[in-house]
Write a structure and sequence with these properties.
The protein is mostly beta strands. It has 2 domains: 1-31; 35-154, Tick-borne Encephalitis virus Glycoprotein, domain 1. The protein is built from 1 helix and 9 strands, in the order αβββββββββ. The strands form 2 sheets. A 5-stranded mixed sheet has the order 1-3-4-5-6, with no helix packed on it. The protein starts with a helix and ends with a strand.
């Protein structure tokens, strides 16, 4: 944890320096923690059937054509082969999505990157996990907030 706080402090200092050291007695700006997901990504997306889309952790997409919302909730396990290494098997990451159809309460749907299931049938579409990023790095734990799931709600 000490390494992470040092990185965050360095990042905050860089932001402060790049903004021209505005307000000499003012501390450097801190990254915003409001909401979830990527800082540049809106909290809720609107997508259409057949469109591939990316969801950051905590982000929700409203899918037209199937009257559903999909929220990226968690990655409880990620055993994918780390970048720059050779593995006997590709490994698998498990992704938990909250799916609500027709205005109902969301239910957890678990999809996988390599093992089954990779897709789930919705009302009149199929929710498919296309990919998950970032790729793991050997010896480094992936920060859960950096995960981005690429999904598609396709026609059956």
């Amino acid at each position: 944890m000490r390494h992470r706080s040092t990185c965050c402090s360095i990042g905050a200092c860089l932001i402060w320096m790049l903004t021209g050291c505005a307000g000499a007695g003012t501390p450097p700006p801190q990254p915003s923690r409001a909401g979830t997901g990527s800082a540049s990504a809106p909290l809720q997306l609107s997508v259409t059937m057949g469109q591939q889309f990316e969801l950051a952790m905590g982000q929700t997409a409203s899918v037209a054509g199937v009257s559903s919302t999909v929220t990226f909730r968690a990655v409880p396990s990620d055993s994918r082969c780390p970048a720059g290494t050779q593995c006997v098997q590709a490994g698998n990451a498990e992704v938990v999505l909250g799916v609500a159809t027709g205005g109902g309460a969301p239910a957890d749907v678990v999809l996988n990157t390599t093992s089954g299931p990779r897709e789930q049938t919705l009302r009149n579409g199929i929710l498919r996990l296309v990919s998950l990023s970032p790729t793991p790095v050997a010896g480094t734990a992936t920060d859960p907030s950096t995960y981005v799931a690429t999904l598609c709600v396709c026609r059956p």
